[in-house]
Amino acid sequence: MSNQKVMIERALSEGDAVAVIDGDQSSGGGVVVDDHHPYAFHVSGPRKVNAPNWRDLINSSWKDGNYKRTVIACFIQAVYLLELDRQEKRSQENALAPKWFIPFKYKLSKTLIDERDGSIYGAILEWDRSAALSDFILIRPSCAPRAVLALRGTLLKGPTLRRDIEDDLRFLAWESLRGSVRFNGALEALKSLSDAYGSHNVAVAGHSLGAGFALQIGKSLAKQGLFVETHLFNPPSVSVAMSLKNIGEKAVVAWQKVKSMVSSNAIAAMEDEAASRNPVAFTKWVPHLYVNNSDYICCYYTDPAGGDGEASSNAGGATEKENVRPALATKGHVAAKLFVLSKGKQKFMEAHGLEQWWSDDLELDLALQNSKLISKQLKSLHSLPPSSTKNR
After folding, report:
1. Is residue 358 part of a domain?
2. What is the pLDDT of residue 175?
3. Which of 145, 150, 186, 298 lies in the 20 to 30 Å Cα band around 125?
4. Residue 92 falls within a domain, yes or no?
5. Where would I find the Fungal lipase-type domain in this sequence (predicted)?
6. Residue 278, pLDDT above cutoff 50
7. Cβ(145)–Cβ(288) under 8 Å?
């Protein structure tokens, strides 16, 4: 028996995952690689989520909010890994990213690339009809989007660090990303998908900085009457700078140093939140926010509208926010669906991580609410003339 076969059988008998890739053709052999990478789907991906099958034609898994949240979080993870695959020069055979979307019958149709550093900051994943048909899934399951635009957050690795931090500081200084090259690219991509498939068949999602982009491009389309399903994981808030003064001051100093590198259009791109009012857009576009109270970047989204931090003034501190049920938006309209993680106090890196959102033991509180920050982020949706509200 060849050494290759012995290695495969030994690995299988021990329950190890193996991958066989082409080796030197002259030797007639292959190379066996133990696949224990921490970002491999079978290592760190969800355990209790099933791939689509013919039963989804009868009762679609996508109707389950937990399933949808899990899969879309996996799509965002795929974008992080697309960039890591690029940086580490992985081939198609050993790339990590595809395993995070292929099992769900989606395919990569386009990557969004920052031409300044060549980094991948987003990707369009589309329903793969051919792959679905091979498993007897004749039509796309109900509530499964035709296409998803997924946007990653900050990646603390050399090749993309500068541009990521530049946009982080941009948001912290101005609470806007509209001057960013990546904003324009993401908005154009989402608009194209909406035009091609209809906004009701499209979703946009992001984590951390990517959630900031997703929120703002989703809001831009909502102003045009295009209401795209939006999922925001650990969305950033400048309120952290207000509460953590030292961090805010350091960020402002750092921003002054990189300001010359930022397009001057950013200043002009600060939205005129006092344009005219349009309650129709406000009620039809309801983004989903996934927030962890131990994450100081996003936890202030849980503060209720009309208050000045009542939720955090209780004896329990931040953990009390999980039980807060603020009043709904004006006239009973819901501004956003806010999902708050109930896990007690955590370290920041764990609380801000994407992996928590497909965890098996995840416990979420759902607050249909209009928080102070949600109201602030979405208030410009009150202000378009009624004639501009066309739903596509």
Report:
1. yes
2. 77
3. 298
4. yes
5. 184-227
6. no
7. no
Of the ranges 154-168, 202-216, 227-241, the best mean pLDDT one: 202-216
Asked if 381 and 278 count as a contact pair (C-beta separation under 8 A), the reply is yes
Domain presence at residue 310: no
Are the C-beta atoms of residues 180 and 127 closer than 8 Å to each other? no
List, as one string, the DSSP characters of 253-318.
Answer: HHHHHHGGGS-THHHHTS--TTS-B-HHHHHH---EEEEETT-TTTGGGGSBTT-SSGGGSSTTGG
Please, which residues bridge with residue 383 across strands?
277
> Who's near 5: CB < 8 A, 6+ residues apart?
none
pTM exceeding the 0.85 threshold for the entire prediction: no
Domain of residue 202, residue span? 51-248+284-303+333-381
Give the domain CATH number at 211. 3.40.50
pLDDT in tens, 297-329: 887 787 765 444 333 333 333 333 323 333 344
> What DSSP designation does 48 have?
S
- What is the C-alpha separation between 11 and 14, in angstroms, rounded? 5
- Amino acid at the residue 297: I
Instruction: Flag whether pLDDT at 3 surpasses 60.
Output: no
In the prediction, which pLDDT does 126 show?
98
Does 96 score more than 60 pLDDT?
yes
Give whole-number Cα distances, 116 to 113, 180, 216, 261, 312, in Å: 9, 12, 22, 12, 42
187, part of any domain: yes
Specify the number of domains making up the chain: 1
